[in-house]
Amino acid sequence: MKKSTILKEGALFSGFYIILFLITVFVPGIGTVTMFLLPIPVVLYSFRYGLKPSLIMFFVILILTALFATVLSLPITILAGLGGIVIGLCLHYKKSVYETWALGAVAVALGFVFVFIINQVLFDINLVTELNGIVDSYTAQIISMFEQYGNIPEETLLLMEEQLLQVKNLLPVLLGIIGILYSFISLWVGFKLINRLYKHNYKFPPFYQFRLPVSIIWYYLISFFVFLMVPEQDSIWNQAASNVSMLIGLLLVLQRLSFIAYYIHIKNKSKGLLITAIVLLMMMPPLFIFPDRILGIIDL
Predict the structure, then answer these.
(1) How far apart, in whole angstroms, are the C-alpha atoms of residue 145 and residue 17?
(2) CA separation for the pair 265, 284 (Å, rounded)
């Protein structure tokens, strides 16, 4: 393929990205929607031309981001760029749809890790400490507000404080869910555009065919090991490992649920079995989420 064509399309997709980026940053409301569309130009370009051109495009949009907005906006492009490159390359090298989704979600999680590190090193901002400070301040305000309405038993206040502070521990879960949803939306929209522009027929296969790459087990074990070796909760590495292990843990739960869907499919059983498993997981996650992870690993 002619080099000039690659350069022209690179400039075109970079321009599309910057338009979406500026809407995301400067237009309230609509920006919430375009935030999930940011990876799409990167996905399309990576799908067309592979690794080297997509890395060049990533470097270009990083520079344009700093020029058109501020250096503080770079984390947005890092998240969108990494997720878009991985999804696009997986499609370029003909990985399975669900493997592409999983690796895209992991790429978004790693993007969060890079954002933590960049803010710490370049701007001397520890995002974990900042978020913990916000939660502590919000907790104090809530408790103070309730105390104004009368004498509340100390046990109730302690319980309320403990529950509010649990928000800190839910941060990795939240980031994990964001990574999975972000990757899914990018992949789904990418399918629609690739099918229309390049006459392919990409779509999500039935859920019972969901299968993660076996290599994801190693990522899970490495992140879990780092989490144990760095126990300080305010450490960037602790939070990074916690986010990655939680994200992969959620993907392993999906792997376990897909096994149930597969069992229902081949044995022609009632779908109520899968619905029951999901309801139990949602109602009592501490009881079921860890065994589901182990069973997901065994399934792989």
Answers:
(1) 44
(2) 26
Q: Which of 214, 215, 218, 295 is nearest to 253 (CA)?
A: 295
Q: Over 90: is that where the pLDDT of 128 sits?
A: no
Is residue 214 exposed (0-12), middle (13-18) or buried (19+ Cβ within 10 Å)?
exposed
- Per the CB < 8 A criterion, the answer to whether 191 and 100 are in contact is no
For 298, counting Cβ atoms within 10 Å of its Cβ (0-12 exposed, 13-18 middle, 19+ buried), the class is exposed
The predicted pLDDT at position 152 comes to 58
Q: Rounded to an integer, what distance in angstroms lies between the CA atom of residue 219 and that of residue 247?
A: 11
**How confident is the model at residue 2, as a pLDDT?**
72
What are the angstrom distances between the C-alpha of 30 and each of 88, 191, 233?
Answer: 25, 22, 35
Question: What's the pLDDT tens digit per position in 17-34?
Answer: 999 998 888 887 787 788
Exposed, middle or buried by CB within 10 Å (0-12, 13-18, 19+), for 156? Answer: exposed
